[in-house]
Amino acid sequence: MRRAAGATLILGSVLLLVVYGCSKADDAWPETGKKRVLASFPPLYCFAKQVAGDDADVRCLLTSTGPHDYQPTMRDVFVVRKAHLFLTNGLELDDFVTKLAEDTKNRTTKLVKLGNALPSGKLLPMDHEGHDHDGHHHHHGEHDPHVWLHPEIAAEMVRHIANLLGEIDPANKDKYQERAKEQDAEFAKLLAYGQAAFKGKKNRKIITMHESLRYFAQAFGLEVMGSVQLRPGIEGDARSITTLVQKCKEKGVGAICIEPQYPKNSAEVVQAQLKKQGLDVQLVEVDPLETAPAATGNSNPDPRHYLERMYRNIDNLAKALP
Fold it and tell me: Which residue of 16, 202, 224, 250 is surrounded by the most CB atoms within 10 Å?
């Protein structure tokens, strides 16, 4: 129903675009003489902005609303229509967002699905175990789309962004490449920091809020045993919660990860049930970065948000695990 409503809204927006004309698009993205780069959601914005610096105008389509819950607005249509480069994650995470580019029929916007450009060997298959709800299986795609949570993959995405910026703005190609190298070094530091933080942990088994942290776990030597939500924003039913509690008890899970984007009710139920069975497991906030607050005085997130939040995620979880 959500996707159907969104498609209807996009169609209505396109019709309004014809009525109101190009002036609205100009108002949405004033001319600066720089290439206009649009990122679908915060991690990609942080990557693109760090590479672009002040040489391109980079914007983030979504901030406080994540790709799982997005509904397009009229202004979004205008912003997409004027972008030279539209960066999306792909892998079916934000493909609905990309319909904006397709439906506005803008031939000057280069649409790139960064996740789809990654080597298949770096992609994890989607784990659908335990995700049948009321007899209906929810399709999430062939591969886990949360690729940005692995620092090495994030570095590869940044290198691809630098190449794309160089293609649309050859005059600044060398600067984009240099900044990408700087980000590559930052991601290497992040990876080393996380691996050191979890190195001495006796228990590295975690439960996630939804299926979002498997690349994060792969990067830092953790093991995901299951997830609380059947799908993003959909709480587990009694049967799935019971199954998860039993699995946690059998495997000796060390922490239950919660996300700031969703209520923690079901996670608290799992925690309480485990406590009754003699297993004291902490709830710990680990943000998958699908949303981000806008920076002060700006409609976009802070470009440093990705790195800062990833370090905080590592610290939070390392402190909680025994």
Answer: 224
Measured CA to CA, the distance from residue 173 to residue 120 in angstroms comes to: 27
User: pLDDT, tens digit, for every residue of 6-53?
Assistant: 444 444 444 444 444 444 545 568 888 999 999 999 999 999 999 999
For helices 95-103 and 74-82, give the axis angle rounded to 10 degrees.
70
Helix (H, G, I), strand (E, B) or coil at 139: coil
Question: The dihedral of CA 201, 145, 68, 191: what is its sign?
Answer: positive
* Dist. CA 86–CA 40, nearest whole Å: 7
Nearest to 140 by CA among 237, 258, 264, 230: 230
- Per the CB < 8 A criterion, the answer to whether 82 and 25 are in contact is yes
For residue 37, give the nearest of 300, 249, 235 by alpha carbon.
300
Tens digit of each residue's pLDDT (9 = 90 or more) over 256-296: 999 999 889 999 999 999 999 889 999 999 999 999 999 98
Long-range contacts of 18-27 (CB under 8 A, 24+ apart): 24/78, 25/78, 25/79, 25/81, 25/82, 26/82, 27/78
Burial category of 311 from C-beta neighbours within 10 Å (exposed 0-12, middle 13-18, buried 19 and up): middle
The structural domains of the chain, ordered by start, are 2-118+143-194 (3.40.50.1980), 200-290 (3.40.50.1980)
Instruction: For 289-322, give the DSSP string.
Output: -S--PPPTT-SSPPTTHHHHHHHHHHHHHHHH--
